[in-house]
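Case study 2.
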Amino acid sequence: MHLVSFSAVSFSAVSFSAVSFSAVSRLGRAVAAACFAVTMLGASVVPTTAAAKDKVIIVLDSSGSMAGRIRNKRKIDIARRAMRDLLKTWGPNVDLGLMAYGHRRKGDCRDIETLYPVGKVKPQQMLRAVRRLRPIGKTPLGAAVLQAAKQLRYTEEKATVILLSDGKETCGVDPCKLGRALKKNGVDFTAHVIGFDVKRGEERGLKCLAANTGGRYIPARDAKALARALIRTAREVRKPAKPKPKPVAAKPGVKLVAVYKKGGKQFGGDIGWTIFNPKPDLAGKRVKVAAKWRGKSGHVFRNIPPGKYVVQALLADHRHIVREAEIEVKANEAATYVVVLNIGRVRLDGSLSEGGAAYKGDFGWTVFDTKADLAGKRKKIAAFWRAKSGKVVILPAGKWIVEGILADWRFVKTQKTIEVEAGGGEAHAFNFNAGRVRFDASLSEGGPAYKGDLGWTVLADKADLAGKRKKLTNFWRKKSGNVFILPAGKWRVDGILADHRHVHTSKAISVAPGSGMPHAFNFHAAPVRVDVTVDGKPFKGEAGWTVFGPPKDALTKKRPKVMGAWRKRSGHVTILPQGRYLLTALNADNRKQTGQTELSVTAGKAQAVTVDLAAK
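Prediction:
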């Protein structure tokens, strides 16, 4: 076998389905994290030769439900008697250990104890440990099975766990996902499960744990059935191993294997394998000798002429990862080349506050080298767009800067330096330090929501020396009640009516990380309908009109223009801020016909105003 390390690297995302990352309870999260660590670390373990003796741990349920009775006998007492009968018949060829849970403290999901370490069976010592069990606690069966598997060094040796339980998991671990993880990462791991007087509907997790590890689920309703189930399970454990088939001479060819790290687990995804002639053609391009798209680690190429070649490995679903190296094919020989990818898996978790709930929207992640060039720029390693919190990606071993943004709120950003271990798996939490805000708009204090379109501009709270504020972002043609996400801090928000831009307001707001706050904006305005007449009769043509505010200069009495409209029909409705105004109008097709009127606007009170054009 040949070991080949490559240096040219690029990266992309990978799907991951070993163990749920969802938080369920404090212990549930801890055990789920343990399962995640088991899955990740399993990628770097090389199986070793199995020990001469098989090893088994029996996990006994001593939770509060085991104090229940069957035919006037406590279930824990029935279990003790069944264990006594089992230990008497246990042979010397299989080492045994005992573990229990729920027997020392009420309500404690960490109440798991090794009663007897794995070793030679000593019935009296074991039974003394079983006799002191008191059924009072919870049912952390998943955590107990995981702990037993670790004691048996299940990633290195054959390991078997026998679980005796009378109910479902009560500490947040998913037995199905745990079973898949243990089977995937174990050398030869099996969990047999005995369901003792289990209520209808509570068997699913127990059955799933057994099925996903290749074990058996045996129900037992009473004392006799439990004794038979234990004996039957013990026979399963003591079955002689099937004889290994005789080796068959390998056919000539080149086998290509990809692993996460030296001595680590094989990469399980699809790979694009290409073998090139090392000498380029006249155009400077390499000549392809053989290729396999979406092959697997362990793919074999045959009928390759003897000689030296360059092999390229490209991860089909993570196309930033490309490796190349030289190999040599010899006539009539079978050779294996191991491609060391030197990568690890990283889970990217995003929230709006430290320790807050996962953000459910989309993220954008960009990974950069920690070292900048002379121009201060960093090399981009990988990018992942519109990914969810909990996304697992593949990155090279080393230190990297990860920048995150909220895909729909790109002004909300964060960054963090992470370290990736080859063959490892780490979860990294990114706090975006932001909160949700709802902007509610009305034309008067406490009035109904404005139904038209709005524009919002978010500015820094503090102005610079020139009196200007730095703009963070803006939102256009939004409705009252729309929700936005803003970075934590103090901000100045300017609002405007999108179709009446002379009506605006401004307000200072404060945003706290992870918060959700409504903010009411009063535009202090009202709708005004402009009716146009000529000598008191309705005007059917088109008019132009201008609204002026009160004079600002007492000497010139010049009025500032507030807004204007052109070629509007009589009855056109506009919105004006609260105040006193002069409205002038003219006939759009006969500008000598003019008129004017004074009006006063009160916030929230709609009104009609008539302007009469003098007939000429």
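The first strand starts at residue 2 and ends at 5.
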